[in-house]
Amino acid sequence: FINCMSIKYIETDSISKICSCLKNIEYSKDPLVIKGGLYLYNLDEWEKFLTNECGFILDNRHPNYLSHEIERYSWWEISYQPDKATSFAYSNTPQPLHNDNAWFKNGADFNFNIMKKQAVNGGESTYYSVDKIINDLNKKNPSLLEKLLTIPVTISKGKNEFSNSTTIISKKQNNYRIFWNYFRINKDDSIIKKMVNDFFNFLKIQEENGFVNCSKFEEGDCFVWNDSLLLHGRKSFEAQKPFDRVINQSMWYFSE
After folding, report:
1. Hey, is 182 helix, strand or coil?
2. Which CA distances in Å does 157 have to 39, 98, 101, 164, 215?
3. Is 155 in contact with 98 (CB distance < 8 Å)?
4. What pLDDT score does 254 carry?
5. Is 39 exposed, middle or buried (0-12, 13-18, 19+ CB in 10 A)?
6. Taking the complete model, does pTM exceed 0.85, yes or no?
7. Please, which residues have CB within 8 angstroms of residue 229's CB and are 6 or more apart in sequence?
8. Element (H, E) at 231
9. In 3D, which of 31, 187, 53, 169 has the Cα closest to residue 113?
10. What DSSP designation does 80 have?
C-alpha cells in the first residue's frame, strides 16, 4: 500500500460479519474490502445477498456514457475500452477525485465494487475522506473551505435532467458530506468558477504530494465505500488490449 488509509479488510470465511461491516459503512469514512469476494458469490448472488440478507435497496440507475440517458441494470462495468476512452470509465488515464452520485438529489448511499480484472501495472485507487479534506483545508486554505461550505452550486449530468443544488461540503446529522464532480458543476458564475478551480487544484496538489490515500486492490476483491463521505479516483495504468482492467459496480441505499 502507498500511504494507505485505515481500510477495513474482512475475509470471506467471516460471512456472518459481512452484513454488519457493510452496515457500518453508513458512518465510516474508510473503504471496506472483502477479500476474494468474487470467489464467494457471483454478481447475481451478491445482489441477492445484499438485498435479502442485509436489507439494502438497489439503485439501478446508470447514465449512458454518450447520451447520459438513464439505463437500468443492476451492475455497471468500468473497463478499459480504447474506443470509448473519452470517458474516464473506459480509459487508462488518471481519474481525478470525485463522487459517483453527486448530480442526483437522491443519490445512492454506497458503492459496491468487484475487481474482476486488475491491471498488472498501475490502476491504484485513490481516496480522500471529507474529514481529512476539511482538516487539510483548515490548515492550508481556510478561506476556500468557507466558500465550499457556504456557496451553493449545481451539479448536473446530461441536459440538466439530473441535477443537485448543494454546497460542495455540507453538514447533515452531525456529519460532513461532500458532493464533488469538477466536470459536472455549472461554472457560469465567475465566483463559483474560481472556487471550483481552486478546489480542483488543491486536490491535485494534495494527491501529487502524497496527502491522498492510495491502494491497489486485487482481482476478486470487493471494495465498498460511502459515496458522500469520501472522494475517490484512480491512478493511470498500463493496458495492452481492451478489458485489461475490469470493475463491476452497483449502487445501494442503506434503507428507504
Report:
1. helix
2. 35, 14, 10, 10, 29
3. no
4. 96
5. exposed
6. yes
7. 28, 29, 129, 130, 175, 177, 178
8. strand 230-234
9. 31
10. -
Q: Which three cell numbers stand for residue 78?
A: 468500468
**CB-side exposure of 64: number of CA atoms within 13 Å?**
7
What is the Cα–Cα distance from 116 to 13, expressed in whole angstroms? 20
- Give the cell for residue 93: 488515464
Q: Are strands 8-11 and 32-35 parallel, antiparallel or unpaired?
A: parallel
Pairing outcome for strands 175-178 and 213-215? unpaired
Rounded to 5 degrees, what angle do the CA atoms 36, 10, 117 make?
25
And the C-alpha cell for 60? 439501478
Tell me how far apart the terminal alpha carbons of the chain are, to the nearest angstrom.
36
pLDDT at 7: 56
The cell numbers describing 145, all together, are: 473551505
Q: How far apart are CA 47 and CA 189, in angstroms?
A: 42
Q: How far apart are CA 20 and CA 202, in angstroms?
A: 35
- Rounded CA separation 164/112 (Å): 22
- Tell me the C-alpha distance between 107 and 171, whole Å: 16
How high is the mean pLDDT in each 10-residue block of the chain (256 residues)? 45 74 90 90 96 95 82 95 94 96 93 97 96 97 98 84 90 88 96 98 97 94 95 96 97 92
Contacts 24+ apart (CB under 8 A), 204-208: 204/96, 206/128, 206/136, 207/97, 207/126, 207/128, 207/233
User: For residue 188, how many other CB atoms are within 10 A of its CB?
Assistant: 7
In angstroms, rounded to a whole number, what is the distance separating the alpha carbons of residues 29 and 176?
10
H or E element at residue 131: helix 130-140
